Batch of 2 targets.
Target 1
Amino acid sequence: MSEQRRITFPHMGPYWVGFKHIGVESGAEVIVPPPITRRTIELGARYSPEFVCVPFKYTLGSLIEGIERGANVAIQACGGCRFSYYAEVQDAILRDMGYEVEFISLQGGGNLLEVMMDFKRKVTPERPLPLIARTFLRAFRMGEAIDEVTGRVRRDLAFEAEPGALKRIEAQFLRDLDATTTPRQVAEVRRAALDALNRTELRRPERPLRVLVVGELYVVMEPYTSSRIEDELSANGIEVHRPLDLTTLIRHSIAYRTHVPKMVAGAAPYLTTHIGAEGTESVARTLAAIRDGFDGVVHLKPFGCMPEVSAMAALQRISREHTFPILFVSCDAQSAEAGMRTRVEAFADMLRIREAGVLYA
Amino acid sequence: MTDLTVGIPRSLFFHAEGPLVCAFLEALGVSLVVSPPTDRRIFERGVSLAVDETCLPVKIHLGHVDALKDRVDAVLVPRYGVLKPSEGEMCVKLWGIHDVTRNVFPELRTISYDVDLVYGGESETRALTRLGRELGASGSAARTALARARKDSAASRSEAASRQERELAERNGSPAVLVAGHTYILDDELMGAPVLRLLQRQGVAVARSDRLPDLHGLRKRALDFSPGLKWAYNREQVGAIMEMRERVDGIVVLLSFPCGPDSLVAELVQRKIRDVPVCVIVLDELTASGGLQTRIESFCDIVKMRGTRSAGVLQ
């Protein structure tokens, strides 16, 4: 091949650090697409099928923005449900748009080990497998660091004494992580960020309101898609927890033969079988949240998301039978921050009224 | 044998797999009640019961269950999930349809069988045999009845395919249109039937994607067009398009809003089929018959013009 390969990939929350690392380590030049903005989704929506789920539109827009910055190789992963079919259609769309890019779809149904094998086959066939395995493992460690640090920030954000302190630490952490080249450095950066978080002054009430966020993987992990609903919850004084992050998802996908039955059992009696992707998990986690004394659940999904719409039938019944507050949010290409703020405020007010035991008959 | 009266909703799996299942249960002596063809009432009940973003066929399914629920002891809602790799898998909406039905009708008794080779189910043979035993038949009676029902439903399927083939062969120069769509849409009185009738009224010969001889072969053949396509019904449709694209003068892709698999497959078909006119019709709750008629008329005009032009070239 004469031309240097310049790889791009779709943006998803803070995980670009790990994705970039994999590309760089494999010897390619990596073009990190800009963060998701209004322009990304406008681009994506313009060239996407009308009622495809919205992560398709976001990731297409993100790939286009990477290609505009000079990438000539687009990498898209594949997962469950419609996600397994994104790559083929996005490839056809980019081709029809006139972009001359090599489109690589990493197969493996979300199973990291198979994705890695496919990466070797399609991107760096000349590199020995142990080297690639080491790169992927290091990227996975980066993902774990990201998940631990952002998870802490998510939980504590509502209570920081000095506004902006935690997000500053998170941003610094991602910059430092991006500069690491060895596993030891990853561990150091992670430690430093956690220390900084531990030193930050928090004013946590004795019993804060606690909300669990569940739903489809892309919209829970890319904050732009939900108009940063987790930050909005924090702004309303709520402690936010979210069981699904990228490394957890990867672990589940490797162990799906035990994980899925566990989730189906956890979703009983509302579900008897697996309803696809994270749908079963959304139901099981909601039931667990009720048992664990959470004050409410926020359910996020792309408009028309098949498994999560099925989950909603169960979640609506759970909400009714357990008198448990669930905020249902459908993310599409037109989400507006002001509308989201109002909905979250109303939800927070309702949780507080409920907590105070005030009931309007 | 059980003295339950079992309700069969005329929706979703009923249209493609129903002939087999009904023949099987009837052979076992189970008394069945099939809901009537979809009408406005069923449709409106379904729309009011479903989550807004549910696809139209699932909404209609819930309407059918509602129409049955006071007349029967239990309603049969099968689940089909992941099939053999050569067959593909069902849309995840259909993976969840039994549980969705249970949650929308918590008081209703449902019975089900689960065909899935990855997530907890079993093969169709085992699943139906188990269902037969649950309804009080012996294992051997169930196996005999199933073999019998398979033979009968295969025979009627192949008869429908030959009839379609004959009609195509004897159409006397009038243009032919392939309608690609899920059987549960094409067979539905409110969704597919009006479209098929409008096409026939335009004087074109209509071939249906689900009335070709070897649907299993089509499921494999579709992979030449789209290697990553995993949904079984979509594979049949794409396979049918590959099989028929040179024999027809136009292709109508009929889908419903907001169908997940079709949203992608229809896009790919439109982008990759350039030699035959393709018309994608999206049915939703608000489909107005006037608009539908205009679209079909103008599409048929294109098809007919194209037919005469190519005939001219041939001369």
Target 2
Amino acid sequence: MRKFLIRRIVQSIPLLLVISVIIFALIHAAPGGPLTMYLDNPNVRPQDIERLRRAMGLDRPLPAQYVAWLAAFLKGDWGYSYADGRPVTVRVLERVPATLQLIATSTIGAVLIAFAVGIAAAARRGVDRIASPLAVAGISLPVFWLGLVLQLVFANALGWLPSSGRFSFGDGGVADRLAHLVLPATVLAVAHAAGWSRYLRASLREALAMPFTRGARARGVSERRILMHHALANALLAFATVVLLDASIMASGAVVTESVFAWPGVGSLFTEALAKRDYTVLMAFLMCASIAVVVVNLAADVAVHALDPRTRDVA
Amino acid sequence: MTSGWKQPGSRVALAVLALLVVGALAAPLVAPYAFDAVDLANRRGAPSFSHWFGTDELGRDLLTRLLYGARVSLAVGFVSAAMSATIGVAIGAAAGYGSRWLDDALMRLTDAMLSIPRLPLLMIGGAILGPNVPLVIVLVGLVGWMETARVVRAEVQSIATRDFVLAARAMGATPVRVVVRHVLPGITGTVAVATTLAVGRGILLESALSFFGVGVQPPAASWGNMLYQAQTTMSTEPWLSVFPGAFIFVTVLCCQVIGDALAGDVVAA
């Protein structure tokens, strides 16, 4: 187990390096490099730009810049935000709790929905007739549009729920915070639950067609127990993996949802930085999000390895 | 699994998608008004008999703009998916049939691209490069090839050990010829499924990019940037954001249903 863990961690190092090269190359693909925003500003003189370029090390060859940037990034020095001059580390970290709260709530919600719908659809043909088309529809929904429509209906038209933010100014009690969480968490949860319930239904159906379920049926085990015990145990591991492997999609979803609902998390920090072309923040966001995805995927691998003895000799 | 085409839904999806494509191509002929016809007397008009889907803040007919927007949105979806399919097949075939070293390098690249959240990556690309329609197509195509590359690699690896491939190699066929003539014909179904799904995803990505102002720019219309322009007037003129979103939703839904039907055929074959 420990050997496997160490090997997987070592394997993810080249992966992270490739990711960092792609992100670094992307930022430097801008015509003016990271100084683009100053080039368009008539108040910044050419000699100032030259001075900045030298001060920021942008006159050095690209590989040297990359190494310097990566070394600084690893030390936790992510530069300063162009927008307000504060350290990027501080700006990102102060937004993390809100994002974690949103992602945790919506993921738990999505898993619960996926379980209920996936199991019911696998067991009952009637449920399946309704649930399967709904799941396909859920996958096809543009997340931001779902957010806008829910906002329109539940916040503007009905006035049941607040349309944006994390709490009301001057309130901030538990009920108020929960009310603010409902819409964004629902939007994210619906987007994920659709795909996950489809997956769980398919793998339950597959397990129900396997010889061991026929054996269980022959022994007189009840249908209910076969589904909830035998088939589910078989499908669960793959399901957990699929949920964890969707971390990258969750990050994209969080950016959209947080922006639509002005949820003060890392995702809305990203869109704010995008509007101001605040490259240090954008780069830090993309690096952090990618690292988070790699770590979660690694966790999925390790969890499967720990829980499923069949994978051990393969590894 | 039986062929997905036996279900009525998949045929309806194909018909709806065909209708949208025809409507987009023939927009100048079928649209009730001119693309930029301004009707100042009828601004922000709710859906009515003369304007089925209402009018925007300049009195332009929404249905007309949706049809012209379909040209951009569908073009982004189809062309970027074709681009992703080409890159994905090339990389997947090279990784599956090439040397161990090449395979490792290409798969590491694929994993890396899959780990970077797609939408923020695209949004930065759009913001940096100054977006226009061709660029949006290229960007969306560049971030959509990984799934295809993975399935193609797996299929190529399994086909590459089959006897007919060994026979071709024994007769002196070059690796490129083996892949193109003997391996790729066996994976068209898989690629078709991945590409159909990529059309829907491309349309979703375009709409999200344009919605955040880093995709298709006005005066060009796409479903995404119509939503972008409509979001501030959401509560007073809801039709301006409801209909473009519904068009995106229906189109992506059709792609998804067709993709599922094709996948059923691949499994059945």
